[in-house]
Fold this protein.
Amino acid sequence: MRKLGRPLSDLRHIIFTHSHFDHVGSAAAIIKATGAKTYMHEADAKIAEEGGGFRTMRAAPGLLQRVLFRIFWHPNKRFESFHIDQTLKDGDVLELVGGFKVVHVPGHSAGHIVLLWKEDKVMFAGDIGTNLLSIGDPIGFENEKIGRESQRKLGKMDYEAIVFGHGRPITSNASEKIRRVWP
């Protein structure tokens, strides 16, 4: 915000795709600095409000995922808790900056969501997958079977661009590229 020359108070809303530490670890400090309203799926809100207590997660298949899982997944790590102002569920629409459609895609996390923005043109995908070396799995799943169903759900949707929590965005023909990986 400062690099953009904007006051921190301009950040008025924070939508969390899920409650894992790497997505919420500094949330309390940001909320204190901005006064932003917070949003998260109801299945993950308790973790945010308790500052941890992560559910069991297993590494996704593949060498890269197993290595990254061992390096980055710390289930006992705590963070400063924060309040969720509005819990979300599948199908909700947040009337913010053109409207965000909430799509519940559990698997990586029970409360994981993706957001469709700008009349379904841009997908904010969180950790349903990554685009590090190529489109692939997140580092782990709380429930791999359900996660695979969610990935296929993403493959059936239409959007022009997709932004991942980890890895490069895809800025054109994104849904076609996703369908090749998660048909």
In short: The first strand starts at residue 13 and ends at 15. Residues 144-155 form the longest helix (12 residues). Residues 25 and 73 are 13 Å apart (CA to CA).
